[in-house]
Specification:
Shape: globular
Distance between the termini: 47 Å
Radius of gyration: 18 Å
Length: about 190
């Protein structure tokens, strides 16, 4: 239905993209991914334009979702913190982030992505829950800021926790937002 509406206002964009360069099923998977992470899809034109740009580099739904998220970054961040100029974020310990990046790159060879030792995963989940709880008490949103390759997997990882934590990649931060690190999790000292 949305494609039909967009086809009326931008027939060339839709005609060029579907089904010649991108299958309807892949497009639906991208929309599903966005909705699963509570990203509004009302700006369908921007989504379609980002897909048209991204499809030249990849047909993978996860990679295309990442491209769309960058295009919708202002909207995503606005939904999290409103018009506040400052974005308070939680970051990962640099060593842990490097470990996860290595794990993701190894997983691209056919594995299922992120491999975290169970004890480390539990400590990370607990650390994130503690910081998220402090943010909730203070009336602020919890945002985990990570490298783009690990963002989808960490978003899935935190989705099953008890606290609402938004996971953003560095590329998804609009230029007009000032980032403030409020906590770093995953190190040896703090879990």
């Amino acid at each position: 239905k949305m494609l039909g509406l967009l086809a009326k206002t931008s027939p060339k964009l839709v005609e060029e993209l579907i089904p010649n360069r991108l299958s309807v099923s892949t497009m639906l998977k991208v929309l599903q991914n966005l909705l699963m992470e509570q990203v509004p899809i009302r700006d369908f034109r921007t989504i379609t334009e980002a897909l048209a740009d991204g499809v030249a580099r990849s047909q993978d739904a996860v990679a295309l979702t990442a491209a769309v998220r960058v295009a919708l970054s202002r909207l995503i961040v606005q939904n999290i913190i409103g018009s506040e100029p400052e974005l308070p974020v939680i970051t990962l310990d640099p060593q842990l982030e490097q470990l996860l990046l290595g794990s993701v790159q190894q997983g691209e060879g056919g594995g299922d992505g992120l491999v975290i030792e169970p004890g480390m995963a539990e400590k990370l989940q607990n650390s994130l829950a503690d910081v998220a709880q402090q943010q909730e008490i203070a009336g602020r949103a919890s945002v985990l800021l990570v490298a783009a390759p690990v963002r989808p997997l960490l978003a899935k990882f935190v989705r099953y926790g008890e606290h609402q934590i938004s996971v953003l990649s560095y590329q998804e931060i609009p230029e007009n937002k000032r980032v403030t690190i409020i906590a770093t999790v995953g190190g040896q000292a703090n879990g």
